[in-house]
Design a protein that fits this description.
This protein is an alpha/beta fold and about 260 residues long. The chain is built from nine helices and nine strands. The strands form two sheets. A six-stranded parallel β-sheet has the order 3-2-1-7-8-9, with helices on both faces. A hairpin with a 5-residue loop joins β4 and β5. The protein is elongated and about 60 Å long. The two termini are about 25 Å apart. It binds nicotinamide-adenine-dinucleotide and zinc ion. Nicotinamide-adenine-dinucleotide binds next to loops.
Length: about 260
């Protein structure tokens, strides 16, 4: 058996031995659906645009038009994206009774499109807009229609406040309700599976440590190495879509035979 095959077997065994599994997913989950991540060398968004000029709440308010152009381009790519084999395999795992829920940093809605349940979107969603004044939430289409018809500052139908996509921008706090949900999942899991995250953005960067301190085990699939690799039972530096479906197939076969 090759080293990779051994790791795939070990990863499957981790899943088979666990009772309460939570997946923590990042932008690396969406790359195989054609959505660029932030930090992959050569293709990550931060090699193309300056994060201080885009996607921060300050830049959005101070130069709304420029930020909207960027977001519209990114949004259109997200809206046409389809779940890949990684998303589908998580759903399969859940149907086998081996996945409690998913904590995702992604705003692309692809876990839901793949019919996974109990998905907590830590950074919000690209599919909604929110009024910055009264917090009214709209489908994103309302905001897109206004921008497409030439409005440079899309506004709330109720209070005329500025609309923004209902995703967390740099400089914005995460929602306390979402953080509480995430804490509960992290505190109760006995296996945390990290898929496609550099584990550099907080609070997510802290979740593996938190799970480990509660006695949970950690498995990581990510092309690049992470600061938590040394704490994981199994680390696979490969593409999710290439290895995770194989792992889930092993789990499925073992469960069938039992
Ligand atoms: N799809 C999306 O919704 C989307 C897209 C871009 C950025 N984001 C945002 O990215 C932020 C930052 O953190 P992050 O950790 O999620 O992203 P990140 O860009 O910091 O890290 C992504 C990691 O995924 C790995 N990776 C890329 N493709 C992979 C693949 N096919 N298989 C396995 N690994 C792969 C890379 O090596 C990298 O380490 C979050 O704030 C999130 O909101 C989301
Ligand atoms: Zn409003």
């Amino acid at each position: 058996m090759t080293d990779l095959n051994i790791k795939i077997q070990e990863f499957a065994q981790l899943i088979l031995d666990a009772k309460n599994i939570v997946a923590l997913t990042g932008a690396g989950m969406g790359t195989e659906s054609g959505i660029a991540d932030f930090r992959s060398p050569g293709t990550g968004l931060w090699e193309k645009v300056n994060p201080n000029e885009f996607a921060s709440i300050h830049s959005y308010v101070s130069d709304t038009k420029k930020n909207l152009d960027f977001m519209l381009e990114m949004g259109m790519n997200i809206f046409k994206a389809k779940p890949n084999n990684g998303h589908k395999s998580l759903t399969k795992l859940q149907k086998l009774g081996k996945l409690t829920g998913i904590l995702t940093q992604n705003i692309d809605g692809l876990h839901q499109k793949a019919h996974s349940k109990n998905v907590v979107e830590l950074h919000g969603t690209a599919y909604e807009a929110i009024c910055m004044r009264c917090d009214k939430v709209y489908p994103i289409t309302i905001m897109i229609d206004q921008v497409m018809s030439g409005k440079n500052s899309p506004s709330c139908e109720v209070c005329n406040g500025l609309l923004k996509p209902n995703a967390i921008f740099f400089g914005e706090p995460l929602r306390s309700e979402t953080l509480n949900q995430a804490d509960k999942m992290i505190e109760s899991c006995d296996l945390l599976i990290v898929l496609g995250s550099s584990l550099l953005v907080y609070p997510v960067a802290f979740y593996p440590r938190k799970a480990l301190s509660r006695g949970a085990k950690l498995g990581i699939i990510n092309i690049q190495d992470t600061d938590m690799d040394y704490k994981a039972e199994v680390v696979i530096h490969d593409k999710i879509g290439d290895v995770f479906p194989l792992i889930v197939d092993i789990v499925k076969n073992e469960i069938k035979q039992a």
